[in-house]
Design goal:
Blueprint (H helix, E strand, L loop, with lengths): L1 E5 L6 H12 L2 E4 H10 L3 H12 L5 H11 L3 H6 L1 E4 L5 H13 L6 E6 L2 H10 E4 L5 E3 L18 E2 L6 H15 L1 H8 L3 E5 L4 H20 L1
Parallel strand pairs: 1-3, 1-4, 2-3, 4-8
Antiparallel strand pairs: 5-6, 5-7
Helix pairs in contact: 1-10, 2-3, 4-6
This protein binds adenosine-5'-diphosphate (ADP) and zinc ion.
């Protein structure tokens, strides 16, 4: 199963991917997570991208595309399947992804569009807490960790992302509407778009996705 997750920041892409990763045994490839790792390690790539990420701006296409291309050369990942989260984010990235996948003759199954409303997005992002160590996502009220400030998965410390403040969130929404939203049409035109309601809780979304998978599966057999 090869799926692209689409939707505004706070639609729950990362949380859904976290759930599916364990239940379906697929890989979760999040360009945001990769960039945060690089920033944490203070690598050259991290230094180069930090400014963009902290302002809520897009990192240049060429840099992220290189990251993703690199990931998609992993045979284990291609065999097991993956959820691509946070990429593509521009039309250029979407076209580049199609090119990369055409070269290896491994197209995605579909793009899953998680549509969410602005009040929900704001509530999700301002209350979001992330594990420093493993990246697991929690929420102060919707999905609190068992022990305050501590990750349920690995006991790591939880923190608030520096780009989860109201000003940067507004920037990210603008960037999303201008650059990323048009990709929804791009996949729709290809007949590869599936939609779910991103205002719903992740467990419910997981069920909707399972249903979509069943349907695609039976279509493939007919
Ligand atoms: P969210 O979906 O919550 O906005 P992500 O973790 O996906 O956040 O991304 C965080 C930041 O990383 C983005 O605001 C952007 O600066 C950078 N980033 C991640 N993926 C990409 C991408 N495909 N293209 C450009 N910038 C990206
Ligand atoms: Zn953790």
């Amino acid at each position: 199963m090869k799926i692209v997750l689409l939707g505004p920041p706070g639609a729950g892409k990362g949380t859904l991917a976290g759930l599916l990763k364990s239940s379906l045994g697929v890989f979760h490839v999040s360009t945001g997570d990769i960039l945060r790792e690089e920033m944490k390690a203070d690598s050259p790539l991290g230094q180069e991208t930090k400014n963009y990420v902290e302002k809520g701006q897009l990192v240049p296409d060429e840099l992220v595309t290189r990251l993703v291309k690199n990931k998609l050369s992993d045979h284990q990942l291609l065999d097991k399947g993956y959820l691509l989260d946070g990429f593509p984010r521009t039309k250029a990235q979407a076209e580049e992804l199609d090119k990369i996948l055409a070269e290896i003759n491994q197209p995605i199954d579909f793009a899953l569009y998680m549509e969410a409303t602005l009040p929900m997005i704001l509530r999700r992002l301002t209350g979001r807490r992330v594990c420093k160590n493993c990246g697991a996502v929690f929420h102060l009220t919707n999905r609190p960790s068992k022990k305050e400030g501590i990750c349920d998965v690995c006991n790591g410390a939880l923190y608030q992302r520096s780009d989860d403040n109201e000003e940067t969130i507004r920037n990210r929404m603008d960037v999303y509407l201008k650059n990323t939203k048009p990709i929804v049409d791009y996949y729709e035109t290809q007949g590869k778009l599936k939609k779910v309601d991103g205002d719903k809780e992740s467990e419910e979304l997981q069920e909707s996705l399972m249903q979509i998978l069943d349907e695609t599966e039976s279509n493939n057999h007919h």
